[in-house]
Hints:
Blueprint: E1 2-3, H1 15-22, H2 27-33, E2 39-40, E3 50-54, E4 67-71, E5 75-82, E6 88-94, E7 100-106, E8 118-121, E9 127-131, E10 140-145, E11 154-159, E12 175-182, E13 188-194, E14 200-205, E15 216-217, E16 232-236, E17 241-247, E18 259-265, E19 268-270, E20 276-279, E21 291-294, H3 296-299, E22 302-310, E23 316-325, E24 328-336, E25 341-348, E26 371-373, E27 380-387, E28 390-400, E29 403-408, E30 416-422, E31 434-444, E32 447-457, H4 467-483, H5 494-510, H6 513-525, H7 541-553, H8 557-571, H9 595-598, H10 600-610, H11 613-630, E33 631-632, E34 637-638, H12 658-672, H13 682-699, H14 721-736, H15 742-758, H16 786-804
Parallel strand pairs: 2-29
Antiparallel strand pairs: 1-25, 3-32, 4-5, 5-6, 6-7, 8-9, 9-10, 10-11, 12-13, 13-14, 14-15, 16-17, 17-18, 18-19, 18-21, 19-20, 22-23, 23-24, 24-25, 26-27, 27-28, 28-29, 30-31, 31-32, 33-34
Helix pairs in contact: 4-5, 4-16, 5-6, 5-7, 5-16, 7-8, 7-10, 10-11, 12-13, 12-14, 13-14, 14-15, 14-16, 15-16
Amino acid sequence: MLLINKKTSRVKMGKKFFLIIFFGFSSLLISQNLLKVSLNKDSGNNSESYCSFTFDGAWCWFSDPRAIYYEGEHKRTYATWVDSHGDVIVGYYDHDSKEIKTVVLEDNFEKDDHVAPALLFSPGGKLMVFFVKHSTANPIILITMKNPEDIFSWEKKELLLNDKEKYEGFQSTYTYACPVMLSNENNRIYLFWRGMDYKPNYSYSDDMGETWSKGRIFILPERIYQLRRPYMKIASNGKDKIVFAFTDGHPRNENENSIYYMYYKNGALYNVEEAKIGSLGDKPIAPGEASVVYDAAITKQKAWIWDVALDENENPVLVYAKFPNDTTHVYSYTKWNGERWITSDLINSGKWFPKTEAGTFEREPNYSGGIFIDHENTNEVYLSVKRDSVFEIEKWINAGGTNWEAEAITEGSSKDNVRPFAVSNAKEGNPLQVLWMQNTKYIHYTDYFASIKMNILSPRITNPLNVEDIKNIMHQTADWQLANPVTRESRLDWHYGAFYIGLEALYETVKEDRYLNEMINIGQEHEWGLLNHIFNADRLTIADVYAWLYEIKNDPEMIETAKWVMDIHKVRTVKSDPAYDANNYRFEWWTWCDALFMAPPSFARMYQATDDTSYLKYAVDHWWITSDYLYSKEDSLFFRDDRFFDRRSENGKKIFWCRGNGWVAAGLARMLNIIPHSHPSRIKFENQFKEMAQKLLSLQREHGLWTASLYDPDELPLGESSGSSFFTFALAWGINNGLLDKEVFEPAVKKAWSALCANVNEWGRLGYVQQVAGDPYPFFEYQWQVYATGAFLLCGREMIILLNSNY
């Protein structure tokens, strides 16, 4: 415990700390001085087990609050973030319906976690969102709800608040934005940001953000180097007091980086002992005029502020990280008891959390996992600490003095969990207390991919034939898959094309914009292009997604390239050749049965989007060229390609591959969803669909699924998830559209769906998926793939339609 002298606010040198200084504050002695706190691991869960507020979001810790609980007409927690595409997003979690809704406030704004916004509610329930690009001259953006509690209707303002005339010669930029409203000042809104000369600036508005005063620098350290920038955290009682905790500068640039404290009240600025040190609007405050909370000149250890709050007596509480060296990050908690600072060094959290690329130096060695105070109960903090090589989130509770208890929130995770934020206004008893980043990748603040997790466990699926449970498991599988991308596969190739087709089904079921926005982002990122080798059917799957998006957004750019590619297909004069084995141009035609899922429905979708019948004609004509070659009328199944006409399994059975026939069955359903009932080929498609469905019904195994080799279950007896998902989707679609007898097929479909749900683990990962292949081979519980999740989502939508039709 550190003692701080009340008069000087400097560290009082007792015998204990003289010895620490004498020994140079070695890492060994520091670790011995840390609190000995036992961790209750029983309360923790793998971070994958928690609900995602978003599968793609990140934030910094200098724009707050990032999340607020607001109870008006609804009980909702609102949060905001920037995604890996640079979209600025706000969303809410509804505590009654359990729904999550999101909206993009600015599309492709800037890929940088510094731009994550801060939130403020007006007295009438209108949310105000403040954000700005990182260290540019671009204005602060203020977006305000038009209607209370309505995230789908906004008004936008651009705030150029830096006073370049007053501070002539200073560099004018904007970073971070932190709003505070004081009710005792007629709801005046104060806005703080890093502005002129990279110093803390402020402005205020007396008309709910309509107009603003000119910005003023209010903290100005000695300018010993260019663009020296204090880092500041802010809190308020919401009535008449604002508190500030700040540093000399960035720890990377300072030889010593101390932490200071002051507060604002009734126009004046005070130190912790309530001595006036200035007035807001007068000359800026120098750090030395404020109270010294942590003196790096004595400890020779740099620090960085993480949070400041006010306790029940309106005394300040601060948390910060100090750095004996770059690989030792010690969290400290300090509170003012009215006479002195009481400080506890909690734990060495480990080194920085960004994944430093091999052969490079870490650009942000002071990026700790993070620590944050619960502002509703300042005896509680949430922190990120490295446990067994992974950063975990824990809740530490001060039981009085230096007595602390620790509870694991995440435990045994496979991904780093960092930057926790205690939800503002979440009182005791609120189930959603803390949000945090779960990193899939974090290299730098401009190169990241993370989820925002909530301390609410994903709901357990107890009845796979209950509509709400189906929606829940669809959410879980989609969110898990989106948070766990297959980096070796292009987002434009067939693997992801199949997944996005399933994501279409989820969006159409739940109408949650975050799924729609993900697909739009993929198109934008790749400029609505396709991969090379445009005659390869696999390259056409993504065109289906573009055409579907075009039907929603009516943006011609979305399908311009896809139409150009398909038009080239249509004008080819070379005769189609469905042969595979002896064909040097096998990938220029639909020579393998999987192609019937990848290409024909994309042409059909383009017909639906454009009303150009030539696309449908091409799809139908070339379907039957491939079908006439690969479809075994005797077996009512498709050979994967002509290499399998005479090939047999080890048990002497014909080889009909599960997923290959799954592609076809699902492709048939998707084609029939579009082909007009008056089309001359409609009956032919229906008959093939019925023939396959009847055969598949006979091949369903006792466990409810289909085996990788349809005719040889003894070779690989486990049920395979990807092919089975496609089959279940197709059969359910057939029932829902009147092509299959409900009494005959519904029991099989329900059994299959229940078995598929049993293959989804508590994280939302669909397992038992055969990997990329062209024939049957072994697979295991831990194996997954994006196309299987897509098939599962297609299936889930049809199951909801089927079950709803029973009522």
